[in-house]
Design brief:
single chain; six-stranded mixed beta sheet; four-stranded antiparallel beta sheet; 5% helix
């Protein structure tokens, strides 16, 4: 069974930073490119960033490019998302999962809530 445990969310002011972590089942982590997604109230879950199994290929959504950095640690089976210069629109629950169309995924962790407010 796949385990996806996101953590690191919180409340920050605009311009602030957070680092999210996602602990993943070892075999699932090793076999898959991983991604971060987010979902805001009333919106569909959307792609944020992805990283391949070797960490060589990385992709970002335009709305986070230059502000967020995805990385992975194979020894810890963990995916990270460093988020800098946070904006109000970044407020969402953040999830990690394998990198694919999120509509095709039928299992999700609980996510971690990021709130950007004054």
């Amino acid at each position: 069974q796949v385990h996806l445990v996101e953590s690191g969310g919180g409340s920050v002011r605009p311009g602030g930073s957070l680092r999210l972590s996602c602990l993943v089942s070892q075999s699932f982590f090793a076999a898959n490119a991983m991604a971060w997604y987010r979902q805001s109230p009333g919106k569909e879950r959307e792609f944020v960033a992805a990283i391949d199994t070797d960490g060589d290929l990385i992709e970002y959504a335009d709305y986070v490019k230059g502000r967020f950095t995805i990385s992975r640690d194979s020894a810890l089976s963990t995916v990270y998302l460093q988020m800098n210069n946070l904006k109000f629109d970044d407020t969402a629950v953040y999830y990690c999962n394998r990198a694919t169309d999120p509509r095709a995924l039928d299992y999700w962790g609980k996510g971690t809530l990021v709130t950007v407010s004054v």
